[in-house]
Structure formats: C-alpha cells, structure tokens
Amino acid sequence: MQGEPEVAVLRLAHRPGRDDRMTTHVGLTARALGADRVVYPDNADQSRQTVADITGRFGGPFEVELTDSPAATVRHWDGVVVHLTMYGERVQDVETEIREARADAPLLVVVGSEKVPFDVYEHADYNVAVTNQPHSEVAGLAVFLDRLFGGRELDREWEDADRRVVPKETGKRVVPTDEPATDERAE
Ligand SMILES: C[S@@+](CC[C@H](N)C(=O)[O-])C[C@H]1O[C@@H](n2cnc3c(N)ncnc32)[C@H](O)[C@@H]1O
C-alpha cells in the first residue's frame, strides 16, 4: 500500500486452459487486498490483460507484469520472501514476525499452481500455511494479505478509477467517479 515498502505477489507457474481463472483471480485478489503488484509467468498474458483492464476501470495504483523466469524473481528478490504452502508454518504463528520484517523491506508473496520445486521452499524466508489443509492459492493469498495488513486494506482509497461501486443494502449501483456522492445518504 502507498507509503509502505512494496508488497508483490508472484504466480510461480501457469497452465494455460486449466489455470486461466485462478491465475486471473490471484491478480485480482492481490489488487483488491492491498498488494502493489502481481508478477505472472509470460504464458499468462490473458490474465495480465484482464487485471490491467480492471485496474483501468476500478483504479489503482496496481502494476501487473510478466516474467520469463519466475524462479529468478524469487532468487533475486531484494527483501523478504513468503511462500504460501499448506506444508508451512501456521500463519497465526509467524504473522507478527513477518509484519516486522516487511516494515522496512519489500515483500514477495509466492503462490504455486502445479507442483512447486523444492528450491522455492529453500529460498523462501518463510513458508507459510493458511491452515495445513489443501485448498486454493486465491483463498490462501486473501487470508495472508488480510493478516499482513491487519484489515487496513479494506479501507484502501483507489486512484484514477473511472467508476466506483456505491455500497448498497440491496441491488447494484456503479457510478462514474466524477459524479458527486451527494445522493448516497438518501439511498
Ligand atoms: C492447489 S495448490 C497445489 C500445490 C501443489 N500440489 C504442490 O505440491 O505444491 C496451489 C497453491 O495453493 C496454495 N495453497 C494451497 N493450500 C494452501 C494452504 N493451506 N496454505 C497456503 N497456501 C496454500 C499454495 O501456494 C499452492 O502452491
């Protein structure tokens, strides 16, 4: 989030067809829940385009980029590396230490898709489990980011959006961002 060291999310691998929605959702979840950037493998350009399009419409700042070597991104990261894995340490046991470590260093959060090579476990400063049960990279990422930011990400302000959602008890309302918010209280 702005004014803090960067939090980037790396999608370690992408299987076209099989992973399309999950890879896109990793990026959308990273954006919505306070990360600054997502890095995709270079065969995930469709997901890159979708996340860039959502950022253009609903705001940022948020960067999305491709790499031809996700493994090198992990190896050369100048900061703290957290790898999300069901085999790792319990998030509730390490979250305070991770929050302290990233207070003055960029943080890379790594999520897998297919089998994760063992050197990622070795390169990571923290292998972190959101429960030690198998589930999804999107769910793991969401819970981890919320723990990392302590809920502050839910109040994030969005810049350069061309539309915004007006929260409503029932129904849907999306308004251009240049429309004054004067009638919100009356809804
Ligand atoms: C569907 S899993 C497949 C993992 C793969 N079979 C392996 O052996 O590494 C895909 C990704 O979801 C994430 N994931 C799944 N369960 C998790 C958990 N309990 N805690 C944290 N991350 C999890 C991990 O990042 C994992 O690489």
TrEMBL record:
<keyword id="KW-0963">Cytoplasm</keyword>
<keyword id="KW-0808">Transferase</keyword>
<comment type="function">
    <text>Specifically catalyzes the AdoMet-dependent 2'-O-ribose methylation of cytidine at position 56 in tRNAs.</text>
</comment>
<dbReference type="Pfam" id="PF01994">
    <property type="entry name" value="Trm56"/>
</dbReference>
<keyword id="KW-0949">S-adenosyl-L-methionine</keyword>
<comment type="similarity">
    <text>Belongs to the aTrm56 family.</text>
</comment>
<feature type="region of interest" description="Disordered">
    <location>
        <begin position="166"/>
        <end position="187"/>
    </location>
</feature>
<comment type="subunit">
    <text>Homodimer.</text>
</comment>
<feature type="binding site">
    <location>
        <position position="84"/>
    </location>
    <ligand>
        <name>S-adenosyl-L-methionine</name>
    </ligand>
</feature>
<dbReference type="InterPro" id="IPR002845">
    <property type="entry name" value="tRNA_mtfrase_aTrm56"/>
</dbReference>
<protein>
    <recommendedName>
        <fullName>tRNA (cytidine(56)-2'-O)-methyltransferase</fullName>
        <ecNumber>2.1.1.206</ecNumber>
    </recommendedName>
</protein>
<dbReference type="GO" id="GO:0106059">
    <property type="term" value="F:tRNA (cytidine(56)-2'-O)-methyltransferase activity"/>
</dbReference>
<dbReference type="GO" id="GO:0005737">
    <property type="term" value="C:cytoplasm"/>
</dbReference>
<keyword id="KW-0489">Methyltransferase</keyword>
<dbReference type="InterPro" id="IPR029028">
    <property type="entry name" value="Alpha/beta_knot_MTases"/>
</dbReference>
<feature type="binding site">
    <location>
        <begin position="112"/>
        <end position="116"/>
    </location>
    <ligand>
        <name>S-adenosyl-L-methionine</name>
    </ligand>
</feature>
<keyword id="KW-0819">tRNA processing</keyword>
<dbReference type="GO" id="GO:0002128">
    <property type="term" value="P:tRNA nucleoside ribose methylation"/>
</dbReference>
<dbReference type="InterPro" id="IPR029026">
    <property type="entry name" value="tRNA_m1G_MTases_N"/>
</dbReference>
